[in-house]
Amino acid sequence: xxxxxxxxxxxxxxxxxxxxxxxxxxxxxxxxxxxxxAGDIRTIGSGNIGATNVLRTGRRGLAAxxxxxxxxxxxxxxxxxxxxxxxxTGPAMAVAALFAVVGHCFPVWLKFRGGKGVAxxxxxxxxxxxxxxxxxxxxxxxxxxxxxxxxxxxLAAFAAMPxxxxxxxxxxxxxxxxIGGLLIALLVIARHRGNIRRLVDGTxxxxxxxxx
Length: 212
What we know:
Layout: H1 10-24, H2 28-35, H3 51-55, H4 60-84, H5 89-105, H6 118-128, H7 130-147, H8 150-167, H9 176-191, H10 193-201
């Protein structure tokens, strides 16, 4: 689809957005730490419900499970968009990807105080464009391993993501997927504004170091 989205498709896209938001808003980090006996993750470290903060509990298994499940939210939401919209699949997948990340960042169940969207965003991008997703994962892991700062890897990956999506977008669905990727990147980077300040100041905690 290269033109404008017809009006009759908008209700379906809106429904896909709501479904993706609900999928993305499942707080796996909070659920896993509570059921795993690690307490309320919102009272630990940064208070974030993502895998990096779960790692600060010292429970690496819970952190790995959080990372995988948060990523799976993004993949599953995009697949739902693909399945539910046999036409206009590019816009549907882009809407699903974006709202899955929005749901993770602003879950209604937690008074809109969620994570930063890294794992869910990467999962969504993997489903939108596997090559882009793999490249972003490689950037994230490479920079994080080099600097031992998770946020530095995430910022580098999401800064590069929109350009790679645009370069590798061969779906024939117009600019929907690159635009969706750009909005996801902007959201994730905005959620890291505190990390950016600490990176500039040289006070950002390194991986494995507990935050006070």
